[in-house]
Amino acid sequence: MVASCLLWPQLAYAMARWSQDSYGVEKRNLLIDSAIAGMWVPLLHFNLLPSVVLVTVTTFDKLSSGMRRLWLASLPGLFGAAALVTLLLRPPLQLESSLLVVICTLPLLVVHTLSSSIASYRLIRTVSRQNKMLELLRRTDAQTGLFAREHWQTQADAALQRFHATAQPACLLMIDVDHFKSINDSFGHLAGDQVIAQVGELIRNTVRAEDCAGRFGGDEFAVLCQNLVIADASPIAERIRAQPLTLRLPDHPTLRLSSSIGLAAAKPGYTNLQAWMAAADAALYAAKQQGRNQVVNVPLAALP
Ligand SMILES: Nc1nc2c(ncn2[C@@H]2O[C@H](COP(=O)(O)OP(=O)(O)OP(=O)(O)O)[C@@H](O)[C@H]2O)c(=O)[nH]1
């Protein structure tokens, strides 16, 4: 009793803790656990309550370990040990449990159930926290901390649907760093990466809390201004355009930056996000054609 209840758990823990192959040792320890439980069934004279509790608890441990089919692998050891001890000692059969046996079995039942429930609760909390973290990472562009393209598009799509349903205005800004390729060529790719990170930060610090700023890929960014008509979104676009002009990288003091921005308000003619983005892209293209470092609105006359 002392060996299996007090010594074996300590020994099993120490072996798993100090082994190079902790997983393999722990798996083997769990199988030995089952064999020890099986050994106890004849030693308890097959007394129904403690025997069933012992076998159930031991098998539950194999299932809750998460190791594939471990519970199945533990059965030969469990029944084998029970059969061996039965053959060697030929214990009498005493199925009925006295009140004393019931009382002595209860702590195992209660402690095991509670500790398993607490372990499951903690595991579920950890998994749910990690899922939230994964979702956040999926939504975020690692280089800038802005929303990643897919999440930004989902938000913009929802804003366009709202506009169609309730006429709640929204504006879309497509932003592109000017001559970014020559920044890469002249100052190196690392400097280009720093520029992307800094421009992302400038955009994040310039937009309102309810706006949705995302990185579209490369040196292209997009901002969704919710609940704003074009006249109110224009100053935000102008502020975003002005910010990179003042940006200085300590490692590259001669580097100068500017950006071009295309601005398009949601309109009934934009039946899907692609149409809205194409309009903002056309305005961005016009800004590039007209000399860069400027904001171009989709002209009212050109609106569908
Ligand atoms: N450093 C860096 N470069 C990138 C990254 N993603 C894309 N690029 C480069 O960015 C450049 C994009 O250039 P474009 O936007 O097409 O052209 P541009 O030089 O900015 O010229 P305009 O847009 O016409 O002003 C390409 O050379 C890409 O290889 C990135 O994450 N880091």
Automatic annotation (TrEMBL):
Matching InterPro entries, A to Z? Diguanylate_Cyclase (IPR050469), GGDEF_dom (IPR000160), MASE2 (IPR007894), Nucleotide_cyclase (IPR029787), Rev_trsase/Diguanyl_cyclase (IPR043128)
Per the database record, which ranges form the GGDEF domain?
168-300
Query: Catalyses which reaction?
Result: 2 GTP = 3',3'-c-di-GMP + 2 diphosphate
What GO biological process terms are annotated to this protein in UniProt? cell adhesion involved in single-species biofilm formation; negative regulation of bacterial-type flagellum-dependent cell motility
Task: Give a GO molecular function annotation for the protein.
Answer: diguanylate cyclase activity
Question: Could you list the residue ranges that cross the membrane?
Answer: 40-58, 70-88, 100-124
Q: Which Pfam families match?
A: GGDEF, MASE2
Which enzyme type, at the first EC level? transferase
Q: Does the keyword Metal-binding apply?
A: no
Keyword Membrane appears in the UniProt entry: yes
EC id: 2.7.7.65
- One GO cellular component term, please give it: plasma membrane
Per UniProt, the keywords (alphabetical) are:
Membrane, Transmembrane, Transmembrane helix
- Name-wise, this protein is diguanylate cyclase
Record organism: Thiomonas bhubaneswarensis
